[in-house]
Each structure stands twice: as structure tokens, then as C-alpha cells.
Amino acid sequence: MSLSQIARSISPSPTLALNEKAAILREKGDPVIHLGGGEPKSRAPMDAIMAAVSHLNSGEIRYAPADGIPALKQAIIRYTEEHYNRKVSPLHVMASGGTKQAIMVALQAVLNPQEEVIFPAPYWVSYPEMVKLCGGIPVPVLPEDGSFYPTLRDIEQRVSSYTKAVIINSPNNPTGAMYSRDFISDIVEFCESRGIYLIMDDIYHKLLFDDRKFINCYEFAKDLSENSKLLVVNGVSKAYAMPGFRIGWAVGSKKLIEAMTNIQGHQTSGPSIILQKAAAGALTGIQSCVENLRITLENNRNVMIDHLRSFEGVKVSVPDGTFYTFADFSTYEKNSRKLSDFLIEKVQVLTMPGSEFGLDGFLRLSYCGSLKDIRDGIERMKWALDLNSPNELYIGDRKLVRDWS
Ligand SMILES: Cc1ncc(COP(=O)(O)O)c(C=O)c1O
Fold it and tell me: Which residues line ligand 1 (CB under 6 A)?
């Protein structure tokens, strides 16, 4: 079959593939533990459900404006004022089919073929593929000091005349690292002074631990006129536990938002009106669900880190936020894909290979599931990898016998 060069250059989403694998194994009756997931297990807020149901009941399910319905845009404007202390108008806001689509459309709006987009590594799996989909070149940057915390120097060294945009995701998927105030301030000033687009992917900004306070990029922007190249993206998938609703948004200059809206209008006509109503319901409704989720995740993180620390040979750093930890398993196996396959095959624990995020030898382990899954999952992994553990392991009434060394 003759597919386009771009289609041939794009890999499938490894996160979605892992979810499918989990579903297939569960259907077969395998006692799977999914530590690779990227979605909170709590229920969507009642305000979101009620808003969607009420609109469905009207029976009038029409096209919506390509940039979003007024109720959702107003909710995003209020959100921006409350969390970023920044007043914007509806012309600065576009609602989208998930944060993913907001980023994708932004890249389509700014990138010419061969232009480069820089982002710190480890990175969210979709950034390189999205850049490639636009004909651009992804430029992942691993911090020189071997940490998960980039410096401006790391980024600066990779800037070329082709650099069109930088994407920053803090706290970060997959490491959980929240970048320092100095770094955010430096990168905002740097991009502004060089005329480079800066996309702040703030999707995890409410899921911070140990009393950390979110760092607001607008504080450091000198130029917030219509020439600003700063774009903030966010969504309801993580903090409001609404990934299946597929609603995200972007806030930026009128010109950029207008260009993005034109693109989105032809692509999808914008997200479904029912789901937009639900997102508006979540953003304007009772907010305690977000803090409850954050507290649960902080507790889950502590349990996961405790268990990993007692796992000989594994190096782990404490996540500042999100619901992921990125642990170094290279003493056991340097090829993280091989290791992840091994763990599925031998003990039915699903993990995400670090290579998918730009750093081999690591596994991304999620703690958005139950405490039991976290404890049992790590115990199974220990049993599979630590050859000093007993030769047998019981999972329910299934007996596993080690047949590898
Ligand atoms: C860093 C990051 N950005 C964006 C997204 C996409 O979120 P959404 O569900 O809003 O499209 C994800 C989802 O995993 C993510 O981890």
C-alpha cells in the first residue's frame, strides 16, 4: 500500500497500545496489574455528568462553534483568571478535543516543514509524533547533568535558526518533576527575546505534592500584547478525571487562536457540544474532587516510592507531582522494552518502557490506580527480577514458578 511519508514515519501511541493489551489480557482472565496507565480512576464530577445529561435530554445536539461554546469559553476565562491571574477575552481562547488536539493544532498553526520543536526529555510520547505529523523535526533535550530538571543552557545549546517552538510540560509526564521557578522564568524570557513560540503544557498543574505551588508562566512574560508567542494548554482529562470526555483548551494571542480555530474548524468542527457542556460543568462546579484526587495521588506516590526504595538495584527519584514515577531499572535490563515485555509475560504487570519517553533503561510506573495494585504490582516485579526471592509466587490461587535465571 502506498502511504504518505508522514504516515510511515509515525509510530502508534504506546500508551493506547498498552491499554489495549491490558484489556485483552483481562478478557482472557489473566490477573493483570496495569502500572502503565495515564488516567485517574476516580469518577467524573457529578456537575459534569449532570450538565451533559441535561443537554442530551434537550434532544438538540447541534454543531458548536469551532472554537468552543460560549459557556465553556467563559469557564476557561474564569479558570485562567483564578489560576493564572490573567484576564483574557473569548478571542484568546479555543476549546479543543483534548489537550492533545490543542497542542496538535498549535503546531499545525506555527510549523513549516523542517522547522524544529525543542522539548526536554524524558518527554510525553506524543510530542515527537505530533511534530513529525506537521512535517517538523522534534528536538528532545536530555538535561546534561543527568537529572530530570533541564536548565536554560540545555535548551539554548539545541536552538538553531530552524527552532520555531519549545514545549514545556511541568510537572512532567513521565518523571513527575516540576521544573524550578528559575527555569520557567528563564525559558519564558528566552523564548520571548528570540521570538520562539512557547507552549506550556500545564495539564498536571493541579496535581502537585508536598505543598508545592504551581508556577505561573505569565508572571515572567514581559510582552503580553497580541504579539506574544506564549500559548498555555490545559484540559479536564487528568485533574477532573475526565479523559474520555476529550476536552482541552488553549489560551494565546488572538492571531494564533484564530489560526488554530480555522484549522480545527476544517478538521473536526471542534469538540462535541455534549462534552463541552460536561467540561464547563466540571470547571464551574464543586471543585473538591480535584483536591481529593490530589491527596489520593500524593498518598499513592508515597506508597509507591516506599516500595520502590526497598527494591534493590532500582534507582528512583521522588515525583513532585502528576501520577507517574520514572525509575531506573538498568541494573536489571538496559533495554526497557524488553524488560516491560518480560514483566507482562512473567507476572502480568504492565509498565511503560522508558525508551518511549526518550530514555532507555527506565520504566514509567503509574500510581493512579489502587494501593493494592501498587503494592502487588511492585511485589510481583521484585519477585520476577530479584533472583534471591523464593522460586514460587502465588497470585490468587495461581502458582507461578520461576523458569528463568
Ligand atoms: C503531558 C501531557 N499532555 C497532554 C496530554 C493529553 O491530554 P488530553 O487527554 O487532554 O488530550 C497528556 C496525556 O497523557 C499528557 O501526559
Answer: 38, 98-100, 124, 169, 173, 201, 203, 235, 237, 243, 248
Q: Are residues 169 and 211 in the same domain?
A: yes
- Residue at a domain's end among 284, 317, 349: 284
Rounded to an integer, the average pLDDT of 84-110 is 98
Q: How far apart are CA 402 and CA 226, in angstroms?
A: 63
CA 215/CA 179 separation, integer angstroms: 9
Question: Which CATH number belongs to the domain containing residue 83 in this structure?
Answer: 3.40.640.10
Centre of ligand 1 to C-alpha 99, Å, is 6
Q: At residue 102, does pLDDT exceed 90?
A: yes
Average pLDDT, the chain: 95
| Range(s) of the domain holding residue 128 | 46-284
Domain count, the chain: 2
The pLDDT of residue 403 is above 90:
no
Distances (CA, A) of 284 to 52, 133, 216, 234: 13, 35, 21, 15
Q: Whose CA is nearest to atom 13 of ligand 1?
A: 38
